[in-house]
Design goal:
Blueprint (H helix, E strand, L loop, with lengths): L4 E5 L4 H12 L3 E6 L12 E5 L4 H10 L4 E5 L14 H12 L3 H14 L3 E3 L1 H4 L8 E2 L7 H19 L5 E5 L2 E5 L5 H9 L9 E4 L13 E2 L1 H9 L4 E5 L4 E2 L2 H10 L3 E5 L8
Helix pairs in contact: 7-8, 8-9
Length: about 280
């Protein structure tokens, strides 16, 4: 029988989906939710605690008291102001390491390392949600056309470059022009910003890939129904994600909504793009 799973819950749908899957499969789960950060829906009907983000010692103790062996980080967490962290003694001791972590990957690596030193087994969300990883190929009725494949190839180059600098996971490209790259604002804000820069009434591809040195246990690229809705509102042509490395939340709904909006959603293996 699987050990009790501890979920460190951030924003978005991913923590909620993890809780749902654990309940459906009979796996016991405990959620640590963070004040001002976590999705309240992730704590419904399961054991949980609300803590300040900087209460590192209290977080570790809560996981121990709940007898969690496996721990998963789920959903993005914005970098808050130092004054709002609510640091406890353990959090204050970690602060120099956290301040030296310049990017999100570096920050999450510090967090994972701390949990592992305390004896927890840190796993990836995809270890629980294996069926949600994007396959290679079109997920819906529409395929990218030749121009779209050109934008996808260009976008992969861009996200690999910004990912190597631990900046972001996504870009939007239209007819070879980079309309924007994801940074601290997140994917939804990138889509909204890029829509105003497009040269034609419709077009452009959102490309979302993992960072080259990214730890799979933290912040795998994720898309869901909100991504589709925002892309449709922005009148993009489609979305390309990294096959086997991107979580698609609510796949059936994503495909249905993408088809209704005449958007393509395609899983891509980067080495194969030149063959398309």
């Amino acid at each position: 029988m699987a050990h009790r799973l501890g979920i460190l819950a951030g924003e978005g749908e991913l923590p909620v989906r993890l809780v749902d899957v654990c309940r459906a499969t009979g796996r016991d789960v405990f959620v640590v939710a963070f004040n001002g950060e976590s999705n309240p829906d992730s704590v419904g009907h399961v054991s949980h605690v609300w803590l300040d983000l900087g209460a590192v010692g209290s977080t570790i103790q809560a996981l121990r008291d709940a007898e969690c062996r496996d721990v998963v980080l789920a959903g993005p967490i914005r970098r808050p102001k130092l004054t709002s962290l609510g640091l406890d003694r353990r959090g204050a001791a970690m602060l120099p390491k956290l301040l030296r972590a310049k990017g999100d990957d570096a920050l999450l690596t510090v967090v994972i390392g701390e949990l592992e030193r305390e004896g927890f087994n840190v796993i990836g969300a995809d270890d629980v949600l294996t069926e949600l990883l994007a396959p290679e190929g079109a997920l819906g009725a529409r395929d990218p056309d030749q121009d779209d494949w050109g934008d996808i190839g260009r976008g992969i180059e861009v996200v690999r470059a910004i990912g190597a600098m631990d900046v972001g996971q996504a870009t939007i490209v239209h007819r070879g022009y980079v309309l924007g790259v994801e940074a601290a604002e997140g994917t939804d804000a990138l889509i909204e910003r890029a829509a105003s820069l497009r040269r034609e009434d419709r077009g452009g591809v959102l490309i979302k890939f993992s960072k080259p040195s990214q730890d799979r246990r933290a912040d795998l690229p994720t898309i869901g129904i909100d991504t589709i809705r925002n892309a449709a509102t922005a009148r993009l042509a489609g979305i390309a994600v990294e096959a086997g490395e991107t979580i698609v939340l609510g796949r059936d709904t994503v495909i249905e909504s993408a088809d209704a909006a005449d958007l393509f959603v395609v899983g891509v293996v980067s080495k194969n793009v030149g063959d398309s």
